[in-house]
Amino acid sequence: MKTRTIALLVSMLALGGTAHGFDLGKALEERLNQELNKSSQPAPKAEPATQPGTATSPAKQKIDVNQLGFALFGDYTPEQESRIGKQVSGDLLGAVPLVRDDKLQRYVNQVGNWVALQSGSKGLAWRFGVLDTEDINAFAAPGGYVFVTKGLYRRLNNEAELAGVLGHEIAHVTQRHHLKVLKQSSLIGALGQVAGSKAKSSDQAVQNLIGNGAEMMARGLDKQAEYEADRIGMVYAARAGYTPWGLPDVLQDLAGLPAKDERTSLLYKTHPHPADRLTALGESVGGQFDALQGKDLAKRFYRIP
Predict the structure, then answer these.
(1) With left for phi above 0 and alpha for psi between -120 and 50, is residue 17 left, alpha or beta?
(2) Residue 38: how many CA atoms within 13 Å on its side-chain side?
(3) Phi, psi values for residue 151, rounded to 5°
(4) ∠ Cα 117 221 234 (to 5°)
């Protein structure tokens, strides 16, 4: 990754951020379209690996067993997971500034870390931020990186709704939804790759997978992963003492937006429709949360000036 991109990410995580005139809706849409266009192009034919002065018979080519083994049975260390998340976040969002409101950023980090604590996950340094765009969306990346757009934040009515939204994104990280997609990519790559003169280490496999991060974020996760994150996010919010209905309230609000609202165009490309998520959530949780008396903490909710 280029040094400039890493520096941009570091400035984001420091909750500083300076507006550079970027618009997330346009900048991210253009980047995602580039990745989708690349993925739709036919892959170039790979040249057979040969040693100087020798010819390699296709029948003697072998799969890189180390990479295949990692894809099937290996796992990412917390350091590798954090590195993937940092680079993917920087690649996609590093050029988009955070809202220049330190109180807002501290508040969202306090709520986010409290909800994340209920997940029982260890070894992750959680980082939360509100992006300065009116688009309505939220993002997560491996390693504990979670972002909410200003457009979505403005639609929230209380802290319980914020906790529900963050709980959903936290669940993507704890359930390793993005890493599972990357490991599938690793498996495909291992099966299609010819062994070179030296077997690749698991660390090299991780480095290779970072290049798939933009396409992964562009296409989004499958709907079952989103439905699972909704269910688990409700649980995390409830454990944190909030009413579990914060996330369903947000989904209901989003479901009522006009179908052609430009602010939700990216949301609908990467998530199922909010109405479908509400239906799936109602079918899965039933009346399990009816007896809970959590708080919405509307008076404590930090409102953007």
Answers:
(1) left
(2) 13
(3) -60, -40
(4) 35
Structure tokens at 173: 């990280």
Per-residue model confidence as pLDDT tens digits over 138-188: 988 888 999 999 999 999 999 999 999 999 999 999 998 778 777 665 444
* Rounded Cα distance, 74 and 18, in Å: 40
Candidate from 21-25, 104-108, 142-146, 241-245 with smallest mean pLDDT: 21-25
How many whole angstroms separate alpha carbon 121 and alpha carbon 141? 15
Tell me the C-alpha distance between 29 and 229, whole Å: 24
| Per-residue pLDDT tens over the stretch 243-302 | 999 999 999 999 999 878 889 888 878 788 999 999 999 998 888 888 888 999 999 999
**What tokens does 135 get?**
């688009």
The Cα 11–Cα 136 span in angstroms is: 23
Q: Which of 230, 240, 245, 99 is nearest to 161 (CA)?
A: 245
Q: Which of 188, 194, 182, 185 is nearest to 64 (CA)?
A: 194
d(CA 36, CA 108): 32
Q: Which amino acid is at 184?
A: Q
